[in-house]
Amino acid sequence: MNANAGNAVRIIPLSPEHAVSCEVIGRSLPAWFGIDEGLSDLRRCAEEEPGLVATIDSQVAGFLTLAHPFPETWEITWMAVAPDHHRQGVGRSLIEAIIADARAANVSLLHVKTLADSHPSPEYAGTRAFYRALGFERLIVLPELWGLENPCLLMVRAI
């Protein structure tokens, strides 16, 4: 049974007051966000960058933060969904909302960095499958960006 049955996902703009909830979600996902340095950056991005929050019954269920490296390209810098809301459409709702915003802003590419296929993490295999299902394609592996033990995969989606 879907835990969200009857509880609509609402997407709203990210604001600094959401930063604590975003960090709590990140800390609840140690297989993805288990490095303190990364969690500090997640908190900073949630406080300073634009983005979106998914709420269910006024509680933060997921979020994404964005960088705008160029007017025509946006980057998802952080994205996470609370464990009890995985596989319930929260992440999909966030991506669909940011794509709609990108179209309205005449953005042509949305990109995200994740761990490359060569990394053995089953969690990140799921992350890559999630992005692929939403139209993202693998563009390039940047093996030294995060260190050789964490090869970075850049994925893109045309808007």
How would you characterize the overall build of this protein?
By secondary structure, this protein is of the alpha+beta class. The protein has one domain (9-158): Aminopeptidase. Helix content is 33%, strand content 33%. It is built from five helices and seven strands; from the N terminus they run E-H-H-H-E-E-E-H-E-H-E-E. It has a seven-stranded mixed β-sheet with strand order 1-2-3-4-5-7-6, with helices on both faces. A hairpin with a 2-residue loop joins strand 2 and strand 3. The termini are far apart.
Fraction of residues in β-strands: 25-35%
Give the number of DSSP strands.
7
Low-confidence segments: none
The CATH architecture classification is: 3-Layer(aba) Sandwich
- Give the class-level CATH name: Alpha Beta
Q: For the residues shown, what is the average pLDDT? A: 89
The end-to-end distance, rounded to whole angstroms, is: 33 Å
Helical fraction: 25-40%
Q: How many domains, as an integer?
A: 1
Helix count, DSSP H or I runs of 4 or more residues: 5
What spatial form do the alpha-carbon principal axes imply? globular
Structural class assignment = alpha+beta
The string of secondary-structure elements, in order, is EHHHEEEHEHEE
Order of strands across the widest beta sheet? 1-2-3-4-5-7-6
Instruction: Summarize the main sheet.
Output: 7 strands, mixed
What is the CATH topology descriptor?
Aminopeptidase
